Amino acid sequence: MTAATLKIDLDALAANWRALDSLTGCETAAVVKADGYGLSAGRVARALARAGARRFFVALAQEGAEVRQALGPGPMICVFSGHMEGDAPLIRDHDLTPMLNSVDQMLRQVEALPHRSFGIQLDSGMNRLGMEPDEWAALRGIALRQMPALIMSHLACADEPDHPMNAQQLRVFKEMTGNIDVPRSLAATGGILLGPDYHFDLTRPGVGLYGGLPFEAAQPVVALDMPVIQTRDLAVGETVGYGNTWSAQRPSRIATVAAGYADGLIRAMGPRAQVFDGNRRCPVVGRVSMDLITVDITDLAETPESLSILGPHQGVDDLAEAAGTIGYEILTSLGPRYTREYLG
Ligand SMILES: *Cc1c(COP(=O)(O)O)cnc(C)c1O
């Protein structure tokens, strides 16, 4: 087997959902956008439905259709981007619930799909998606008569608990939704950890389910093992890889493993990344290539069959730090070439 193996632990995923659910007294949904943060939306959604999730969120109607196919009828599937031009057939045929972001989307919905399920997304300060306070004030009466299934907004700084933006957005969200008898949702993973003021009726965790920060208590969900294709012994002064960026300071043994930046192991992690043989850490040397990574295994007694880049000693956020990015980006970049093994 030459492709690297991505192991996805669906039991850990379900345990993370239950752990986040136990932190609140309200309903816990699951965000499965971007193909379930790169881990396969269908597999992930089915595992979370078994754990008890009844509401799912995706970014696009197309993603919602895929999740509906995986889940069958019953669970509510909400679409953050709302009702875009041309989406009506997908929304109708797959029984999706668009989170309407503007007056235009509201009109599109009532015209094309009257009396069908929808929600409202409000902008409480992030300035990314949702109706702004003025727009909402004008539309609110009409929208509420159509009986939205949910009113939601999203926090910009929830991963920084002390950031004043959190309280500010909470205040705006409460002002915009006061005296409304519709279920409300403000918190994603970070918002759940901010405490009960932020929970309302439904939370929408994503990254914490998949083992990422800011949910520090998360169980790791992914492990990635890369097979060693070849090894070679270098004399002092010999170089490795494109650009000759690394040269041997001692007689060295180099292993070449089968994964690279085309598989989401981004080139920027190069000199700061490491891989593991069991408990033993081995530095990545030279540049990350498209399909290959070179590793200094001089200190290993034997040549391993594979080396681990994601596992117990290095999680998605550790690797993200080496690459100057966030765990979310490492997860959603995991490429299509891996052999995927689902556990659980
Ligand atoms: C992605 C997203 C979430 C999930 O956020 P996490 O930080 O991954 O928990 C929730 N709500 C909205 C609107 C999102 O875009």
What's the total number of strands?
Answer: 19
In the predicted model, the low-confidence regions spanning at least 5 consecutive residues are none
Please give the CATH architecture of the largest domain. Alpha-Beta Barrel
Radius of gyration: 23 Å
Q: Sketch the topology as an H/E string, one letter per element.
A: EHEEHHEHEHEHEHEHEHEEEEEEEEEHHE
In short:
This protein has 344 residues and is of the alpha/beta class. Helix content is 30%, strand content 23%. Helix 3 packs across helix 4 (61-71).
Question: Mind explaining what this structure looks like?
Answer:
With 344 residues, the protein is of the alpha/beta class. The protein folds into two domains: 10-209, Alanine racemase (TIM Barrel); 222-343, Lyase, Ornithine Decarboxylase, Chain A, domain 1. The chain is 30% helix and 23% strand. It contains eleven helices and 19 strands. The strands form five sheets. Strands 3-4-5-6-7-8-9 form a seven-stranded parallel beta sheet. Strands 1, 11, 14, 17, 18 and 19 form a six-stranded mixed beta sheet that branches. The longest helix is centred in the middle third of the chain and has 14 residues, at 164-177. The chain starts with a strand and ends with a strand.
